[in-house]
Amino acid sequence: xxxxxxxxxxxxxxxxxxxxxxISPCVLPLIPSYLTYIxxxxxxxxxxxxxxxxxxxxxxxxxxxxxxxxxxxxxxxxSATFIGNFFHENQVxxxxxxxxxxxxxxxxxxxxxxxxxxxxxxRFEVKDKPLGYLGSVLVGIAFAAGWxxxxxxxxxxxxLYASTSGNVMNGVMLLVAYSLGLGLPFxxxxxxxxxxLTYFARFNRYLRIISIVSGIFLIIVGLxxxxxxxxxxxxxxxxxxxxxx
Length: 245
Hints:
Blueprint: H1 5-22, H2 31-39, H3 43-47, H4 52-86, H5 91-110, H6 116-119, H7 133-144, H8 151-163, H9 168-191, H10 193-203, H11 207-226, H12 229-244
């Protein structure tokens, strides 16, 4: 069965949120540090002429790192959906409350209003990374547990969104899409590290603007949830897509 237009819109929203998480000020500047840490490859080796062994090592450690945080996010998505199903009889109320919280989180990210409890960092740190690919999985899990002021509100918004979905599988797919949005740019950055550094030097000056755009994106998603406009959008797509297929 092909996914409905509503599901496609939801997955696109989650994927976009993952990209915003990657380019947030809490994640993007730390990519070189994460990469050298999980691979055990020095910065000079990563920026120099890479051998086939170095490229292979970078690829697999990055994939296992992505697997680590994906496992955590998907588990959170399944749990959030279970809670949403538990309150199924109050679905409209939960959707509106959740949408309001997403709007509030978006306002926080823009910097217009700062919520103190979201400024606190809650993270697990792996100081001595175990050897092998298992270590990269564990670092990915620790990264997912790093509820930083930047990634936290965006992830929380997707979890709230997942809690309004119809079943556990929908919640899982939303968090898989979110993880892909976060993981694919990381993987591309790892495989083209010199290119990443070049663009990051130019990109760094726009991090504040990115935070504002991310906040506006969440505000729009929250309003769509509050007023149930996602259903209208999916109806429109149902009319348009068959004609363009």
